[in-house]
């Protein structure tokens, strides 16, 4: 499986490099021509180009909502620091700032549709998140995993075939995580999945007979929409709403609406109902309680620290 994936990534890399090389030549040529509109030498700072990247699938808060900086003086902009949730994942004093709304789209795409109505627990409920493509059971061959993945592998022997770069003691990690639920079905593992609040919620489950919720971090979950126009609409950007503190004018209040109204689209086919994603976009893991330990370690040591210490 690894070799197949590697070949795919290699091929994509070659194609991407070729495209960028062609684009780079054109951009250089346009900059050289410039004319009266050439601004390359009139920037206020050394920054001459800004590339906007819309992160695919998962947001920063999906993993790092409760992340706390390692050293004094460091800051992080997340749900915890904004008071939207508490360290244990419960609603914080500013929880209402993350409220989501439905909107009305009249056959014409808009990045900021109007007639918004906040979600609630009665007349405008958040749809139960879906399992999307998450595996109901572990794959019984590497070929099956390569074709349908991502997903777990049924045995250690198959896991060893799937990833020969892992140490033997780490192979069991590839054999866990199946949902036990059919694909594209409501993810009933999530606590209160059919009665979610209007805002971020922890990705936890309460096992039958269990006394306290446990994290779903070590299992596969549904896939939030990851298509450009849908993700752009989720941000709900309107320059008329720009302020000093929010110069973009983006309200970021249509994540749930887009997941429930158009989702990943239908590629020209009739739109399925209920849509696969449901209210999945607002779910988050809790690094403060031990989720995503390796990612948290990398953040504290490298990617989210301004201090260099031995």
Report the helical percentage.
Answer: 10-25%
Q: Characterize the main sheet.
A: 2 strands, antiparallel
Over all CA atoms, what is the radius of gyration? 22 Å
Tell me, briefly, the overall form.
Answer: globular
What is the string of helix and strand elements?
HHEEHHEEEHHEH
Instruction: Indicate the structural class.
Output: mainly alpha
Specify the number of helices: 7
Q: Which whole number gives the mean pLDDT?
A: 84
| Stretches with pLDDT under 50, minimum 5 residues | none
Gap from first CA to last CA: 39 Å
Task: Describe the structure concisely.
The protein is mainly alpha-helical and 310 residues long. Helix content is 25%, strand content 5%. The chain folds into 2 domains: 1-51; 58-136 and 179-310, no CATH class.
Can you describe this structure?
By secondary structure, the chain is mainly α. It has two domains: 1-51; 58-136 and 179-310, no CATH class. It is 25% helix and 5% strand. It has seven helices and six strands, in the order ααββααβββααβα. The strands form three sheets. Strands 1-2 form a two-stranded antiparallel ribbon. Helix 5 (228-235) packs across helix 6 (255-261). The radius of gyration is 22 Å and the shape is globular. It starts with a helix and ends in a 7-residue tail after the last helix. The model has no long low-confidence stretch (mean pLDDT 84).
List keywords for this structure.
two-stranded parallel sheet, 25% helix, 7 helices, 2 domains, 6 strands, single chain, 310 residues, two-stranded antiparallel ribbon, mainly alpha
């Amino acid at each position: 499986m690894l070799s197949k994936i590697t070949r795919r990534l290699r091929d994509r890399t070659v194609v991407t490099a070729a495209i960028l090389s062609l684009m780079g030549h054109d951009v250089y040529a346009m900059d050289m021509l410039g004319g009266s509109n050439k601004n390359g030498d009139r920037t206020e700072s050394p920054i001459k180009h800004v590339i906007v990247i819309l992160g695919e699938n998962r947001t920063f808060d999906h993993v790092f909502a409760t992340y706390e900086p390692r050293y004094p003086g460091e800051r992080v902009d997340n749900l915890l620091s904004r008071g939207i949730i508490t360290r244990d994942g419960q609603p914080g004093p500013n929880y209402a700032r993350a409220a989501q709304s439905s909107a009305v789209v009249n056959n014409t795409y808009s990045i900021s549709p109007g007639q918004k109505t906040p979600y609630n627990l009665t007349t405008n409920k958040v749809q139960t998140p879906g399992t999307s493509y998450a595996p109901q059971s572990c794959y019984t061959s590497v070929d099956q995993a390569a074709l349908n993945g991502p997903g777990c592998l049924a045995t250690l022997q198959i896991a060893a075939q799937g990833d020969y770069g892992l140490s033997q003691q780490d192979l069991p990690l590839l054999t866990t995580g199946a949902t036990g639920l059919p694909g594209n079905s409501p993810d009933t593992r999530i606590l209160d999945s059919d009665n979610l609040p209007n805002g971020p919620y922890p990705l936890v489950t309460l096992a039958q007979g269990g006394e306290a919720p446990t994290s779903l971090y070590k299992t596969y979950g549904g896939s939030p929409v990851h298509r450009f126009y849908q993700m752009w609409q989720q941000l709900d950007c309107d320059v008329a709403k720009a302020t000093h503190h929010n110069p973009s004018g983006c309200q970021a209040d249509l994540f749930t609406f887009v997941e429930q109204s158009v989702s990943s689209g239908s590629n020209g086919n009739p739109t399925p109902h209920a849509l696969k994603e449901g209210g999945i976009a607002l779910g988050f893991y809790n690094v403060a309680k031990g989720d995503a330990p390796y990612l948290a370690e990398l953040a504290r040591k490298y990617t989210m620290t301004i201090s260099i210490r031995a």
